[in-house]
Design goal:
The chain is an alpha+beta fold. The protein has a single domain (3-262), classed as 4-Layer Sandwich (Double-stranded beta-helix). The protein has 6 helices and 15 strands. The protein has helices at residues 23-36, 48-56, 129-134, 138-145, 159-168, 207-220; strands at residues 3-7, 11-15, 38-41, 78-82, 108-115, 124-128, 148-152, 176-180, 182-185, 188-191, 198-201, 226-229, 236-240, 244-248, 255-262. The chain starts with a strand and ends with a strand. Bound molecules: fe (ii) ion. Fe (ii) ion binds next to loops.
Length: 263
């Protein structure tokens, strides 16, 4: 069984068994990912070994020092966990792209769910920046084309983490990087701007630039570009981190995800 189901053109569900895909199917998976920016596979019984092997078909798994590795054997698989007793926002609760504050952010991010609350309760929202670019007026395309964004690991999304670190008296080193706002991925233009880490444009932040930033954030996260992924156990999602914004939605309960980022 191998079936691709488009989700309003903003994502695709793929029905298959990732333990048994052939080269032709892998090609189809990759082209579907390029087309939609985010794809997901329900009902996958993957060992850590097979999960990592599948990830390697897309590139080199990155080391992510900010999260704990699964174990010594699989340091590239990091654990994203929320317990029902946890207070405050979840990890990643604002639209962002992963690690935009590094020189070379990962091209892809993968999550495999191990434990989730009831379906539809703890979603991850995605916003297609391919669609967001398409819908920009010519005037805005031209304005944004000339700009770069400056991003910080201590940006707006990290406030709670930084506060917690301050209490412990151990603040991680701030990482800052800059990237073009408009970029091209395999001949397709996209907006690359991570509101969760954004500090400023690489130019004097005049009143007009502040307004442009406000317009951009608002435009990037319009509902018409979004797809809300409902987690169920043993579901794998992969997205193009250069072309999709994503955010965790607030929830109460236990959730355990295994994450791999790919350079
Ligand atoms: Fe994230």
């Amino acid at each position: 069984m191998f079936k691709i189901i488009s989700k309003k053109n903003r994502a695709a569900e793929i029905i298959c068994n990732l333990n048994k895909i052939d080269n032709k199917q892998l090609k189809q998976i990759k082209s579907t990912l390029d087309k939609y920016g985010m794809i997901y596979f329900p009902k996958q019984k993957l060992t850590s070994k097979n999960y990592l092997n599948f990830a390697k078909k897309f590139g080199k798994p990155a080391n992510y020092p900010r999260l704990k590795g699964l174990n010594k054997k699989y340091p590239q698989i990091t654990v994203v966990q929320r317990k029902s007793t946890d207070k405050g926002p979840s990890f990643g609760e604002q639209f962002h792209t992963d690690s935009s504050y590094t020189k070379k952010p990962p091209r892809y991010t993968m999550l495999l769910s191990k434990l989730v609350p009831k379906k539809g309760v703890a979603n991850t929202d995605f916003s297609s920046q391919y669609l967001a670019y398409e819908k920009l007026s010519k005037n805005y395309k031209n304005k944004l084309k000339k700009l770069k964004g400056i991003y910080s690991s201590h940006g707006p999304i990290s406030i709670t983490t930084v506060e917690r670190e301050k209490e412990k008296g151990k603040i991680s080193k701030e990482l800052i990087s800059r990237h073009k706002i408009i970029r091209t991925i395999k001949n397709k233009k996209t907006i690359y701007c991570s509101p969760g880490h954004f500090l400023k444009f690489n130019t004097h932040m005049t009143k007009q630039k502040k307004e442009l930033k406000k317009f951009l954030f608002n435009h990037q996260t319009k509902k018409t570009f979004q797809y809300s992924l409902e987690w169920e156990k043993d579901q794998l999602a992969i997205w193009d981190n250069r072309a999709m914004l994503h955010q965790a939605t607030p929830f109460k309960g236990n959730r355990l995800l295994h994450r791999i980022t790919i350079l």
